[in-house]
Each structure stands twice: as C-alpha cells, then as structure tokens.
Design a protein that fits this description.
Length: 523
C-alpha cells in the first residue's frame, strides 16, 4: 500500500495542481466529536472533513463543502449534526460571488449535507441550542462590513428545511450594546402559555427573544440608568412553582457589582397594550458583596436566589419576593455553585443540595439547604483537596453521580463521587492536561502537549497509559460502524494525521496510524 502511494506521488511529479494544496495546514483545534465521526474544519479548502471509523479501526474520510469564508462551527449537543457558519466572499463584487450561509451536516447514515441556509449578511459567531434545535448567528466586534447592524441575530430552526420564515432575522432594540452571550431556557410556564426564551446578553442590557414565535418583538431589559454602563456577567433562570404561570424569574449577575437584578415575568395588566403576554419587571437585590456565581435554589422556606460572595466567604440566600436576605457562613472563598439534588435526592421538604467549589482554595463543600429558616447556617460537609479546582466536568449517565474536578495547575484531577462524598485524586506527570469524557460516561481520556495518552476507567480508577508516535492535538471517542467504540487522536503534523485505537481495549498493537488526511490520506 505504501509503495503504491509513493508510485502515485512520483507519477504526478511535475503535474499542475491547485494552489490550495500548498496552503499552510491549520492547527486542528477546529475539530468536533460527533457520535459516529470526528469533524475537522479545513479552512483553506472551504470544507469539513468527516472521519468515521469503519471495520477494524479504518478511517473512511469524507469531505463536504461548507461555503467560502469559514467563520465559526459547532456540533449539536446531541452529537448527531455539525453546523458551519461561513461569511461567503466579502465584499461581493458580482452576482457569482458566494454569499454567507449556515451548512448543516450529518455523519449518519452516511456523511452528507442536510441543509444549507442562505444568509443576507455575513456574521462571525454562532450559538447552539442545548436542545439541538436552534442555531443563532450573530456579529463579532469589527466584523468589517461596510455597513452592519451590531444588534442583528439570525435564528435558524435546524429541524426545518430552509423557507421564507427560516432563517429569521431579528434586530434587537439596544441601549448602545451588542450581543455577547446567549442562553437558551428550558420551556417556561409563562402567562399565555409555555414557551422557550433566548436570553441575549450585551455589554449593558439583556433581551428576551421568544423562540416559540420569532415574529414577536423581543423584550429588552436595560441595566444602566447612570453614566457608567452595567455589564451582565451571567444569568440564572427559575420556572417557579409547577402549578403557576406567573412566577418565572431571571436573575442577572452584574460584573463587579454587589447587586443582582431579578426579573419577574408577570402577566400584562389589562389596561396595557402589548404584543407579549408577559411583562418583565426588574428588581434590584443587594447580596452583601460582589457575587461570583448565582443560582435559584429550593430551601425549606421556598425558592431563594443563592449568591456566592467570596469576599465575605458566605452564601447569601435571598427571598426573590420580599428581598429579605440571610447568609450562610463558609470557611473558604467558594466561587462556584452547582445543584446536585437530582443525584443525591432532595430533602424531606423538597430542599436542594448544592456543591460549592473554589478556584482560590483547595476545598469543596456540600450544602444542604433544608435548615435555613430563622437560622444563619445550613448543614455543610467539607472535603479538602490538594489544590484548587479550575473546572468541573459533568459525567454522562449512567455515571452522573461522578464529576471530574480539574485542578488549577492542570496536573491533577479528582473523581468526585457526589453520593459517597469522596474525591479520588489522579495525578499526572504533565501540567495543562486535557480531559475528554466518553459519551457513555464510563471513562475519561487524558492527554497533554506531547505523545502521552491515558485511558482512565471511572469506576475502577485504573489508568492505561499509551505512548503514541506523534504529538496529540485532540482526542475524540466515537461509535464505529460495527457498534464498537474507537478513540481518534488527531495530530497536526503531516497535513493532519490520526491514530485510531479500540476505545474498549486500547493497545498500540492494534492501533492504526494515518498521515496526510487533508491531502487524501496515507495509512
């Protein structure tokens, strides 16, 4: 096989070829793991290369065009489809010049373009719906168009074919800001019926877009009344009581500010005329200091807004109806909160259990929120690690009771069992490790800036170390066409290479190496 490939290369020596094949090969950071393939964006050739694994660890590359002027890409959270945003030819000088578009690609049953959605204006960023239905394209600062609307969104329903009403262009009413972050809510019980909202954060206001009816004007919530703009840092959403449609709320955390704005989504009064069935009523709540994270939680006293305030080492609980606050004293500057009630179960009164961790202190804590009424404390269990936590990875079912805590140095990780309240340390000889979780939740893959790779079984905590022949730039676990699992390690050298291993029983003896995948591939 290698001699035949060499003969073909020699036979073509001196032949004319397109200049694109001499273009510099991009670093394969724009790679995405789908359920049954790895998708790699090849920018110079305006295409995506899908890498499914067939038979005995055989790659079957398929190249699909994505439109000129690649801007951004994402995979749908269900891992079944891939979305590429292209700016087209900018500026367009003739009718033949390609315009901007969003290309939707599926890897199964065969790699194919599902749909291509034409856009009227080039945009540079894309946000993906956690439910895998909507994609939202929006501009980046300095996009470079002669005239552009910095508050334009384009919403695409990926479950529908292109149509006059798909995509939908939306121009947000703005108080001087432009979109920076997007949050898709779960279905909320609102006055007038259940609907999902797209929460758009700018650098000075927040807009609510109705995903059920994109023809309705958005609801804009200005945050700034004085000369200094207030920037939204993050949002939290509560649907309220199950039997009510008038108590949904959105909490807006403000950057470097001790106030949180809680927005009640209430019925429109009969005397008011509005295209919406709800109105947004903001309330300012002081939480005792600048919060680093906020969440809505259930306590024995009902719904509360929980705000972590590292400067006073406290968890502030605020009644969103009355604004009355109480503090739970902590012994460390915890700055992140995650609810684990669905894993460990609620208290007898339906109260939540929160996991707290810190990027500044090597401590984590479990806080039971069922003993707060009239008391300045709650039940707290603490664990001390060897170093602070930089990030927390959620392990998929059936092992959702496990979480991977990645250390600040990147050289350690901790497998946290939320049920047993234990954190098992896993050490690495390298810093800045990368962790990739298997979709089945049974293992993690650990790599660093080198040739070393390790498989970690999340139940036995047994590592299997492997030394590949080339530097590893990214790893993805995918489903093979025979139902087995494969691990694809990408290498940026050699016009994109890959090493393919059996994910269940990784061994260099059975691994297959590939070179020059962007040029056609040599096994």
């Amino acid at each position: 096989m290698k001699w035949r490939a060499m003969w073909l290369l020699l036979a073509c020596f001196g032949c004319e070829r397109e200049a694109v094949w001499d273009a510099e090969v991009p670093h394969p950071t724009k790679a995405f793991g789908l359920d049954s393939a790895v998708a790699v964006v090849d920018e110079p050739t305006d295409r995506v290369l899908l890498l499914p694994v067939h038979g005995e660890l055989e790659l079957a590359p398929a190249a699909l065009p994505i439109g000129k002027g690649f801007a951004a890409a994402a995979r749908t959270p269900d891992r079944l489809r891939f979305v590429a945003l292209s700016r087209g030819i900018v500026p367009r000088r003739t009718g033949e010049d390609e315009g901007p578009s969003i290309t939707l690609i599926a890897a199964t049953p065969e790699p194919a373009i599902v749909d291509r959605y034409e856009l009227s204006d080039p945009l540079s960023r894309i946000a993906m719906d956690p439910e895998s239905r909507f994609a939202v394209a929006y501009p980046a600062p300095g996009d470079g168009n002669f005239v552009h609307n910095p508050n334009e969104l384009v919403v695409v329903d990926l479950d529908r074919a292109p149509a006059p009403d798909n995509p939908v262009e939306i121009s947000l009413r703005s108080f001087g800001g432009s979109p920076e972050r997007m949050t898709f809510t779960q279905p909320l019980a609102l006055p007038g019926g259940e609907r999902r909202l797209l929460i758009v954060q700018t650098d000075r206001d927040v807009a609510l877009v109705d995903l059920q009816d994109l023809t309705l004007p958005e609801v804009t919530i200005p945050l700034t009344s004085g000369p200094q703009p207030l920037a939204p840092a993050a949002v939290a959403v509560s649907d309220g009581a199950l039997d009510r449609n008038d108590d949904a709320r959105i909490a807006i955390r403000i950057a470097d500010h001790p106030n949180v704005i809680v927005v009640d989504l209430l019925p429109v009064p009969p005397e008011e005329t509005s295209p919406q069935t709800y109105r947004a009523l903001p309330n300012v709540i002081f939480v005792g200091g600048v919060p680093s994270d906020v969440a809505f939680v259930q306590t024995d006293g009902g719904l509360r807004l929980a705000a972590l305030v590292p400067s006073i080492q406290a968890l502030t609980l605020v009644d969103p109806t009355t604004g009355i606050a109480s503090e739970i004293a902590l012994d460390a500057p915890f700055d992140r909160i995650s609810l684990v009630t669905s894993i460990v179960g609620a208290g007898e009164d339906g109260s939540d259990v929160a996991l707290l961790w810190s990027t500044m202190s090597p401590k984590i804590a479990f806080v039971a929120l069922g003993s707060t009424v009239g008391k300045p404390y709650a039940s707290i269990e603490r664990l001390e690690l060897s170093e602070p936590v930089a990030s927390v990875l959620e392990v998929p079912a059936p092992n959702a009771h496990l979480k991977i805590l990645h250390s600040a140095s990147g050289s350690s990780l901790f497998v946290l069992d939320v049920r047993d309240r234990t954190a098992a340390p896993i050490e690495s000889s390298q810093s800045n490790t990368e962790i990739t979780l298997a979709p089945a939740g049974n293992r993690a893959w650990i790599s660093a800036a080198g040739e070393e790779l390790a498989q970690l079984d999340l139940l036995s905590l047994h590592p299997v170390n492997l030394l590949l022949s080339r530097r590893i730039d990214a790893v993805f676990e995918v489903t093979r066409d025979n139902g087995g699992r494969a691990l694809v390690a990408l290498h940026g050298s050699g016009a994109l290479g890959a090493t393919v291993l059996d994910a269940d029983q990784p061994s260099l003896a059975s691994a297959r190496e590939y070179f020059g995948l962007l040029l056609g591939g040599l096994p």
